[in-house]
Amino acid sequence: MRGRATIIGAGVAGLATARALALEGWDVDVRESAPALPGTGTVLGLWPAALEALEAIGAGPAVRGSGVRVEAAATTGLRTPAGKTLIATNGGGKLLLIRRPLLLEILADGVDVTFGAEVAGPRAVDGADVVIGADGTNSRTRLAVFGGQYAARSLGAVAWRGTVEGAARSHGETWAPGALFGISPAGPDATNWYACLSAGQPFDPPHLQHLRDVFGSWRTGPAEVLKRVTEAGILHHELLEVPRLPSYSCGRVVLVGDAAHSMAPFLGRGACEALVDGVALGRSLGASASVADGLAGYDRARRARTQRLVGISRLVGRTAMMPRGFRERNAVLQAAGAVMGAAGSLKRR
Ligand SMILES: Cc1cc2nc3c(=O)[nH]c(=O)nc-3n(C[C@H](O)[C@H](O)[C@H](O)COP(=O)(O)OP(=O)(O)OC[C@H]3O[C@@H](n4cnc5c(N)ncnc54)[C@H](O)[C@@H]3O)c2cc1C
């Protein structure tokens, strides 16, 4: 079917959905509260399913042309702060890294976005067959439809992240009780970094000295990266997730992206799933005879899968920063890494 859709939010989810619906012949308008697309932001890693979604909405070539493949030879893996390797892996070339502002710019090309247009809630939207809440983790659309018990909840952890110029000598994640530090390539001459601490509340600025105090002595590269970080280049926030919703739609209103399933960042999948949501919703509405059927088809295609990822991502974070039992965990990881390594060398023979 065809119809008219209003999308609340011009993030990855809203823009991908707008493109997918336009391809199905829908008349789409996007309302964004911010005055413009963001000019700054860190790097997102896009997995193959997200790249397929980008191809489906005609953004594949531009994203592939602007992103950077993780070098197949780039050594990544898990280590302890003392530098002991738990699991060594190769980057593998399947992940494409792209700066978030660039991805948004590509997605917004050709989409009708009204900036500076804050929407009070789905009831404030007239004349649309479908209202799409793509308004992020603290979605007003979700609260209006499902109520305050579905407000995003704290995961008891906070994160800092940023991108610095220059390559880093080593990549990968370092796991310690209550803390984690990650370093990944962000291009031929840039490095993405992130740090997490188990903590109830976000920290007050300044952040840089605090990060150096906590992570500076780790032997896995944080000091080298933090030397290049500036206070202004640090993003800091609490980690949140959305409780399991009973449905991703209600009446003519439907949720996509973080509004539906905001998750901890430990799988690096939030934006990827937002892209896949957009394509799934566009296809389902385009192929259905009614809005009700189209929204039900989207819910069937996406809810169970994304809610499973929310749980797995939370578990990975808890396992990474577990305060007790980490020696046993490390022994299991090292043994698993050795088995995987042996299997790899047998295959190569
Ligand atoms: C530390 C960290 C690292 C991450 N790394 C990765 C990664 O490597 N790979 C990956 O796939 N994902 C990653 N993610 C997740 C990813 O950033 C998000 O899942 C993704 O950006 C969600 O997009 P969205 O469009 O759903 O929401 P948002 O990006 O939050 O967009 C929502 C938009 O709605 C607008 N809005 C809100 N309310 C209103 C309103 N009332 N009216 C109008 N507009 C409104 C907002 O201004 C915003 O532009 C990471 C997240 C974190 C925290």
TrEMBL record:
Domain of life where this protein originates: Bacteria
Gene3D superfamilies for this protein: FAD/NAD(P)-binding domain (3.50.50.60)
Keyword match Lyase: no
UniProt-listed InterPro entries: FAD-bd, FAD-dep_Monooxygenase_BioMet, FAD/NAD-bd_sf
Domain FAD-binding: 127-310
Entry keyword set: Monooxygenase, Oxidoreductase
Record has Oxidoreductase as a keyword: yes
Record field: transmembrane: none
PANTHER family xrefs: MONOOXYGENASE, PUTATIVE (AFU_ORTHOLOGUE AFUA_6G14510)-RELATED
Protein name per Swiss-Prot or TrEMBL: NAD(P)-binding protein
Species this chain originates from: Arthrobacter silviterrae
